Each structure stands twice: as C-alpha cells, then as structure tokens.
Amino acid sequence: MPKSATRIQQKNQAAIMTAGLEVFSQFGFRGSTLDQVADAAGLSKPNLLYYFPSKDAIYTALLARLLENWLEPLHQMNDAGDPVEEILGYANRKLTMSRDFPRESRLFANEILQGAPRIKDVLAGELRALVEAKATVIKRWIAEGKIKPVDPVHLIFSIWSLTQHYADFDVQVRAILGDTDPFDTAETHLNDVFRRLLTP
C-alpha cells in the first residue's frame, strides 16, 4: 500500500484488520481463508490483496499489534511502588484486557497452541527478558520482606492463567454463570487471592 494512504485506504486497511481479528480469533490461522476475511471486511478478494499480499501478512500484522499491547501492562509495573499494589495492579490490567480485548486474547492463544511459529522469537526474546527483569524486582521485594516468598516467574504465569481464562474460555465461563457478567466479581476475587498470597 502506498506510504501516504488516502482516507479510503486507511478505512479499508482498518476494516481488513478488524475482519482478520474476527476470523482468525474464531477459526485460527489454518481454519481461516482470505475469502472469509474479505467477506467480513466487506471487500472483494482482489481489493483485499491490494493492501495485504497474503493471509499470512494480515495475521502477522495482527500479531505484531497485539504483542505491543500485550506487553504494556507488565511494563507498567512500577519497581518503586508498593509491591502488593503493583502486582495487583498488573493482574487487574490483564483482567481488563481480557474483558475489553477477548478476540485478541483468543488470537494469541491460538498462535501459542500452534507452536507460536510467527512469534516464537518474541516470546524467547523480548517477553522472556521482560519477565526476567520483573522477576528480579519481585525477588528484591521478597528479600526486603515486602511480600511473602513466591516463585516470581510462576506468579506471573498464574496472573496470566487467572486473567486470560476469562477471554479464552468465555463460552465456558458464561455457560456456568448464566446471565451474571463474570467481570462483575472477578476483580474482587483475584484481588483477594493475590493479596492473601502476597501480604506478609
């Protein structure tokens, strides 16, 4: 696509990204087709191919945008803040992302289940480095007696599991709760769990 995109081009590109997110998060990369994405975007397949040369190009662009947003909540954990509140804040930000961006969460989960062929380098590089850096901070908080001893990396894994579950297993959660919105009480429950786990 030309560097200086017109308003129509920007609108079409955004429509393709939105459609790609909807299709890929529902069917996964292998189960999705360009025709499905084009239909969902309200464009012809040739028109779609003007903006993205392949299904892989759309999927990769979605993952790149997703990863940038996915890492931000952990970046925001303040090394100089109150340890319990900083960890709870991180958990709450992750829960909010599950509530507000469930399709993105399922897209990420689908990619991981396929062996993460397109983001393995990011997982082993940028994400690993970020987790190791925050684990070092958590170890310092433990050594200073500010939180109970926990395995820092498994703590972060637990936060991922207990928050992303609400997006990735949304159908199961809502089937059990019926008309009750899971997010009405999830934050209170998670705060209680982690506060009990961490408070000295």
Summarize the biggest pleated sheet. Answer: none
Number of helices: 10
Low-confidence stretches: none
* Overall 3D shape: elongated
| Backbone CA Rg | 19 Å
Reading the helices and strands in chain order gives: HHHHHHHHHH
Q: How many structural domains can be distinguished in the coordinates? A: 2
How much β-strand is present in the residues?
under 5%
So what's the CATH class of the largest domain?
A: Mainly Alpha
First and last CA, distance: 56 Å
Summarize the structure.
The chain is built from 10 helices and no strands. The protein has 200 residues and is mainly alpha-helical. The longest helix has 24 residues.
Describe this structure in words.
The chain is mainly alpha-helical and 200 residues long. The protein folds into 2 domains: 7-53, Homeodomain-like (Arc Repressor Mutant, subunit A); 63-198, Tetracycline Repressor, domain 2, CATH 1.10.357. Helix content is 76%, strand content 0%. It contains 10 helices and no strands. It has helices spanning 7-27, 34-41, 45-51, 55-75, 83-100, 102-113, 120-143, 152-168, 170-177, 183-198. It is elongated, with a radius of gyration of 19 Å. The mean pLDDT is 93.
